[in-house]
Design brief:
about 425 residues; alpha+beta; Beta-Lactamase; Heat Shock Protein 90; six-stranded antiparallel β-sheet; five-stranded mixed β-sheet; binds adenosine-5'-diphosphate
């Protein structure tokens, strides 16, 4: 085989390897692949990788072809080692006889039972930034490393450095994701415990306040009325927390009946009327003349509507309007809750459906709430095979659209 053909073949092999390297995103297997391939393309007995630990400023042996355990992690001084010199200079280094350079550091060779005779070291570099050193050890058949080996290993190192960097990024992302998952679990556990623990004492407060009110009659007065109102508000909050918990754990049962969706909208608007009125907001509906049958869980639809309507009222200043419209569209029905309130910035329109997400910072917000309502709305609508989204331009009011599967049914089968 001519020398040119062999060189071409080696470069071709590197191209092939590049593709393999970019598809390996786990760091340890990637490092081992790199050392195996480095030994192969340079015709060496072994190869190793040293990576710079940016925090300690040390170089560390991370992989050696003679060590398949993957547990290698040996520090090497940057100041007084061959690898350190390559890292600092950025130049390849060839050593034909290791006994000729006192800087040769053989702790790894000793560990994996390999005696180094000759060595070729090239920097692992991404643009100007050096992240480590790649070494080929003991050219086969007692030969010395030549110019071609330097070129081939340098080409491989360029590709390897990029792959190592992206594998590290993927690993960092994976770790961050896992940490987030744990935090999320803590939050869910907290909700479960808090809602459960609050429920029992609250039931007692509600019970005794109601008994007292009945016993005292007229004398109960406004104070007791206020206690009952506050306790009922707390009950709603706990109900929200429990709803979320059930949705998350898949323990939410759907009790499906056939009913006219107009009636639930009318009831929700009637019950939210007083609060709209006290906020100076006009609450109206635009409903079809004909029945709109749906097969769904009526109570849960009520929760959806209550959340959307109470949000619309909450985020609409005095003299504004909130309107609930309903219309059928083929085999779907569409509910729209629109308001003339503060609106939602475009980039927040999807995130508002995330749990605990609120556009305004919680610490400075003027409006109450836990940021759970829309997460529950989305969960409940999707549980019914529907979809929900928000449309808005900041300062121009908001529209929340809920689309549900329609039910073509005979009106006689419908419950009230
Ligand atoms: P909460 O209302 O308890 O904060 P939600 O999950 O119901 O939680 O809503 C999340 C966030 O979405 C709200 O904090 C608010 O920033 C925004 N939002 C919801 N509905 C409206 C609306 N009609 N107009 C403006 N912003 C809204």
């Amino acid at each position: 085989m001519s020398e040119t053909t062999s060189r071409e073949q080696r470069l071709e092999r590197i191209l092939e390897i590049s593709r393999e390297l970019t598809s390996t995103t786990a760091l340890e297997p990637l490092l081992h692949k790199i050392v195996d391939v480095s030994a192969e393309v340079t015709g060496s007995e072994a190869a190793s990788i040293l990576l710079l630990d940016v925090r300690s400023g040390e170089l560390r042996f991370r992989a050696e072809s003679g060590d398949p355990s993957g547990l290698l992690d040996i520090p090497v001084p940057v100041d007084d080692s061959i690898a350190g010199a390559v890292l600092i200079s950025g130049e390849p280094y060839v050593l034909s006889d290791t006994s000729a350079d006192p800087r040769h550091y053989d702790a790894v060779g000793e560990q994996v039972g390999l005696q180094t005779r000759s060595l070729l070291a090239v920097p692992l570099q991404i643009k100007e930034r050096r992240i480590g050193v790649l070494e080929a050890i003991n050219k086969e058949e007692g030969n010395a490393f030549g110019q071609e080996d330097i070129e081939v290993l340098t080409a491989l190192a360029a590709q390897a450095a990029v792959s190592i960097e992206s594998a590290r990024l993927v690993e960092a992302l994976r770790e961050a994701y896992e940490r987030l998952g744990k935090l999320d679990q803590l939050k869910s556990d907290f909700i479960a415990i808090a809602s459960h623990e609050l429920r029992t004492p609250l039931s007692l407060i509600l019970l005794y306040a109601a008994v007292l009110q009945e016993q005292l009659g007229e004398e109960a007065g406004q104070q007791l009325e206020a206690v009952l109102r506050a306790a009922n508000h707390l009950k709603d909050i706990i109900g929200t927390m429990l709803n979320l918990r059930f949705l998350e754990t898949g323990q939410m049962d759907v009790i499906s009946t056939l009913f006219d969706l107009r009636t639930v909208i009318q009831e929700a608007c009637k019950d939210n009327g007083p609060i709209a009125e006290s906020n100076g907001v006009l609450l109206g509906t635009d409903l079809p003349d004909d029945e709109v049958p749906v097969q769904a869980d009526k109570e849960k639809m009520r929760v959806v509507l209550d959340n959307l309507i109470s949000n619309a009222i909450k985020f609409t200043p005095a003299n504004g309007r909130v309107e609930v419209t309903l219309c059928g569209r083929g085999d779907e029905v569409e509910i729209v809750v629109s308001d003339t309130g503060i609106g939602i910035p475009q980039e927040e329109l999807e995130r508002i459906f995330d749990r605990f997400y609120q556009v305004e910072d919680h610490m400075i917000r003027r409006h109450g709430g836990m940021g759970l309502g829309l997460a529950i709305v989305k969960g409940l609508v999707e549980l019914h095979g529907g979809r929900v989204w928000a449309e808005s331009a900041s300062g121009q009011g908001s529209r929340f659209v809920v689309v549900l599967p329609a039910q073509q049914a005979s009106p006689s089968a419908m419950s009230d």
